[in-house]
Amino acid sequence: RVLLRHFRALECFTPLPTPASGLVVYTQDKRIARKLAEDIESLEQECIVEVAGQIADNGLKKLCHGLSFNGRPLPPIKVSWQNEFRLRFAIRAVRPGQIRDMCAQVGLQVVAMRRLRIGRFSLGKLPVGEWRYLPAGEKF
Description:
This protein has helices at residues 30-39, 59-64, 98-105; strands at residues 11-12, 20-22, 26-27, 44-52, 68-69, 72-73, 78-81, 86-92, 109-118, 121-122. By secondary structure, it is α+β, with helices and mostly antiparallel strands.
């Protein structure tokens, strides 16, 4: 049952970049907040990125491994094509602007971005603008 107290003191622990959409986690539960604060670097996030432009030679291979961000080499990342306009990123410890910069390094422009999953917690078939409670037993 939805109660007004469920909406008091909510904190967002998984913000999205301004042009992105998708899964965001709000909580008032201290246990979930601590788990997210401590483990967000190790939780894999899955994003679908709509791109435009022509990818460079070996661009997908470079996206998977071989690029740098802010002067530091990036660890291996799982990147694959969903279709001719969309890339699927499965990435840990993502930084603001990292995916956009990675795409720019291989000649692609990001048109849209949508986060589908954080750890084991998935957006699923939840309609745009809707929310749901984290059921007992479901973990990040």
